[in-house]
Design a protein that fits this description.
This protein is of the alpha/beta class. A six-stranded mixed beta sheet has the order 1-2-3-6-7-8, covered by helices on one side. It has a six-stranded mixed beta sheet with strand order 9-10-11-12-13-14. The chain contains eight helices and 14 strands. Strand 2 and strand 3 form a beta hairpin. Helix 5 crosses helix 7. The N and C termini lie far apart (about 40 Å).
Length: about 300
């Protein structure tokens, strides 16, 4: 069956060679190993912010907008207009700063439509009440697979790439793709698939879908953990580099072999230390729980669940 969305994404990347390239400025949050990308059209200076971070100290329960304020300062200094705040999925390793950035810079908050599936799962895990909507309405827009939009004059298309979670999407903007946690740098491999709703087989198929993009497609990743032997953080690579050198899923790695590797590897991994605060905030679109009658906000800690 022909993948019409992928074909449109391929055509877009190839056509981008004739236009000014999308510009990307990355802000790296070392405590969570997260890369936030400010993406913009150099002609119109309209842009988007992909996968932002709200600083959070778990020991004290304190939040900070230190990293987000650096992004605000950059956007204002460069005279950019932010049209979109894009999330690739509901992150399990950091809290999103999207609502804060939206208040400072404007823009529409968006994620893939399958966020509703994730909300249903974690609504049960955290025993959220009926006041917690499980329909994605905390976001301004829910993207479908193959849906198109624009960043200024640059075309963009959304690809649904489930596996790490059911809701992961990649944003192909001009000649660049922002793939969230689906892939890491070639020397580090691929995302885990053992969270509720994760699926290693779906992850493999999503990765092979991405790898059908032109080899020159620039890939911007959400995380880097510095593979052994590498001294610097990195978050930009290409489809060609992934196809030839990804240690988990380069060309020639069969689906069953990948699923076996991923399943065994995931069984050895600890949970991200911020998974419990992160998920219950991020399924709310990055909004903190409402204050209780004493004015304080509280996060839940489910016992003996994970």
């Amino acid at each position: 069956m022909k993948d019409a969305a992928l074909e449109r994404a391929r055509e877009q990347v190839l056509a981008a060679a004739e236009r000014p390239r999308v510009q990307v400025r990355t802000f790296f949050d070392e405590p969570t190993f997260t890369a936030t990308h400010v993406v913009y059209d150099p002609a119109t200076r309209r842009g988007a912010i992909v996968d932002s971070v709200l600083n959070f100290d778990a020991a004290s329960g304190r939040t900070s907008t230190r990293g987000a304020d650096e992004i605000v300062d950059y956007v204002k200094h460069e005279s950019l207009t932010i049209d979109w705040l894009l999330e690739t999925h509901a992150h399990a390793d950091h809290l999103s700063a999207a609502p804060y950035l939206q208040g400072k810079l404007g823009g529409r908050l968006a994620i893939g439509r399958e966020i509703a599936t994730v909300q249903a799962v974690f609504g049960k895990v955290f025993n959220f009440g009926a006041e917690f909507a499980r329909d994605g309405s905390q976001f301004d827009h829910l993207f479908d697979d193959g849906e198109t939009f624009s960043i200024g004059e640059l075309p963009a298309i959304v690809l649904h790439v489930p596996g790490h979670t059911p809701a992961d999407v990649a944003y192909v903007i001009g000649d660049a793709a922002f793939v969230g946690d689906t892939l890491f740098m070639p020397d580090y491999g691929t995302a885990r698939a053992d969270f509720p709703g994760g699926d290693a087989r779906a992850l493999y198929r999503s990765i092979r879908r991405l790898m059908a993009l032109p080899e020159a497609t620039r890939l911007f990743l959400c995380h880097d953990y510095k593979a052994p032997g590498r001294d610097v953080y990195a978050w930009e690579t290409t489809i060609g580099a992934q196809r030839s050198g990804n240690v988990h899923v380069h060309d020639g790695v069969a689906e069953d072999a990948f699923v076996e590797m991923r399943t065994h590897r995931d069984a050895t991994l600890d949970l991200p230390h911020l998974i419990l605060p992160s998920v219950q905030v991020n399924v709310r679109g990055g909004r903190l729980p409402p204050p209780e009658d004493n004015g304080a906000r509280y996060l839940k800690l489910p016992l003996d669940v994970f």
